[in-house]
Design goal:
- This protein is mostly beta strands.
- It has no helices and 13 strands.
- The strands form three sheets. Strands 2, 4, 5, 6, 9, 12 and 13 form a seven-stranded mixed sheet that branches.
- Strand 4 and strand 5 (46-52) form a beta hairpin.
- The chain is globular and about 40 Å long.
Amino acid sequence: QVQLVESGGGLVQAGHSLKLSCAASGRTFGSTLMGWFRQAPGKEREFVARIRMSIGTTYYADSVDDRFTISRDNAKNTVYLQMNSLKPEDTAVYYCAAGGALFTNWRPDYWGQGTQVTVSS
């Protein structure tokens, strides 16, 4: 049984920071991908960031690049998302994702339940 558990969400003012964590259990993801998606009410789920767990290479959505930083701790089977200079449009439920294959778009095999991030103006 694979489980991804997010933590670290909350309410912050615009311009401030949050750091999300995602701890995986049930299997290791050291040879594949982990990362983050987000979904605002009434909108489609969108990709945010991913990291190749083996070598640490990263990729970000254009909307968050240079403000967000993804990192990982392979020994803990955990991925993080440091979010700086937050904007109201960053408000969403943030979902951890892991595994799967990278074709035109990343298609993860596993998903967390999500953590709410709310940014006030």
